[in-house]
Amino acid sequence: MHAVKHPSTAVFMKLAAAVVLAATSATAASQSAISVVDDRGTRVVLPAAATRIAALAPSITELVFAAGAGDKLIGVPRYSDFPSAAASIRQIGDASRIDLERVLSLKPDLVIAWKTGNHAADFERLEQLGFTVFVAEPETLSAIPRLLRAIASLAGTGAAGEAAAGDFERGIAALNAQYRMRSPVRVFYEIWHEPLMTVNARHMISDVIALCGGRNVFAPVPVLTPIVSLESVIAARPEVVLGGSSATTPAEFAAPWMQAERYAALRRVQARYVDPDYIQRQTPRVLQGARTVCEHIDAVRTARNTH
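Above: the chain sequence. Below: its structure as tokens.
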């Protein structure tokens, strides 16, 4: 009968050390993983900071650059024209029709989508194929700094993201203190003219109007971007019409509303231009758009109060 050989103390020590090392490595990997919650309420986890990012909307492209991660972008959609460096990045279709095959070929380690601008089927398909997808839906002004911080966290550019978020928050706080409590002005915001389209209370533009002490006359409508009739605008009796996506100059934007002066309810209405890139793209440039909106609303307020 052969004696059973027991492992030596040295062998036990080596085994124990290996177990400790494996546990330590696992703990370190867990601690280095990045975890944020996107605007679907989904927790998005990366083992390390993203180095290859695909943006699925022009506004997302801007947000990534603003968060200090523009050099990590390897794919952007058509019309990603700000900042100018975005023009040199490979295009992957447009926001409404993403070229999934091209995205796959670029092998991104992070895809950032726009919830209501992209087709859900597109980014859901990317998730099914194993890609990490963060979905953004900036509905309010407070969403901009939140998304800057989230994107910076995922990209490992925390300091740059925090600086951009802080600048935006301070700018908005200054406008809030200056304008929000002034006498209200009734505002119609035109996002398109044929057909006539506007926004309800859930859109960021409505948040900007409120910041400036304005009242969105179509805030209660249940649809985010409803088509409205001229008759309904007349009934709402706005004091100012804001917009710009249907025109390229202030005069061009104002022209159709000057013709509407034949209606008694619109006889005194003013039409004032706002560059759509500064108000209809949900990016840090909204701060510049908000300053313009506040100035326009305050000019109407001042004129009204002097009569």
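The longest strand covers residues 185-190.
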